[in-house]
Amino acid sequence: MKKIAAVLMTAGCILGFGGMAMAAENDSQTVTYTIPTINELAVTGTPTLTIAIPDAGSQPTPVEATANYAITTNESNKIITAALELGMPDGTALAVTLAAPGEGQGSQGKVALSTTSQNVVTGISKLADDTNSITYELTATAEADAATSTTSPSVIFTIIDGEV
């Protein structure tokens, strides 16, 4: 009899504690978060372009140099534009080609730069890509004045909204 009582007491304790463990209270909490609009563009590298002296009777040969850019956007239908801060000297021209980031974006190919913004990549949507090339091409004619010092035009790249 004592054994039965001990077994019943033990079982009751186990079941009682088990019931207490299952009777834990629940609570909830609201978490507030914000995801900002992200449209970031960064260029890296220091492209140097030097026109070589041509053979007599020939125009100078265009030269190219490369750099890179990274882009992150969480929006759709963005465009990268490019413009020169100041115009190029007479007899010279600077063009740029940006590789399209990700898939489905559209590079506009080689674009002659001026002080007016021009589309260089279109249709950019929701991506983060840091492996994109920029190719600069400098052309000069025999009429171009010799640069007595290094000339460094600033190229301004901007992310803007595409047309809807």
Task: Describe this entry's structure for a reader.
This protein has 164 residues and is mainly beta. Helix content is 13%, strand content 38%. The chain has one helix at 2-22; strands spanning 39-44, 63-73, 78-84, 92-98, 106-107, 111-112, 118-124, 127-140, 155-161. Strands 1-2-8-4-6 form a five-stranded antiparallel beta sheet, with no helix packed on it. It has a four-stranded antiparallel beta sheet with strand order 5-7-3-9, with no helix packed on it. The chain is elongated.
SSE topology sketch:
Layout: H1 2-22, E1 39-44, E2 63-73, E3 78-84, E4 92-98, E5 106-107, E6 111-112, E7 118-124, E8 127-140, E9 155-161
Antiparallel strand pairs: 1-2, 2-8, 3-7, 3-9, 4-6, 4-8, 5-7
Strand order of the largest sheet: 1-2-8-4-6
CATH homologous superfamily? CFA/I fimbrial subunit E, pilin domain
* CATH T-level fold name: Immunoglobulin-like
Radius of gyration: 33 Å
Order of helices and strands: HEEEEEEEEE
Compute the number of structural domains: 1
Largest sheet: 5 strands, antiparallel
CATH C-level category: Mainly Beta
Number of strands: 9
Stretches where pLDDT is under 50 for at least 5 consecutive residues are: none
Mean pLDDT across all amino acids = 88
Shape assignment:
elongated
So, CATH architecture?
A: Sandwich
Class by SSE composition? mainly beta
Strand residues, percent: 35-45%
Instruction: Determine the fraction of residues in helical runs and give it as a percent range.
Output: 10-25%
State the end-to-end CA separation: 87 Å
Number of helical segments with 4 or more residues:
1
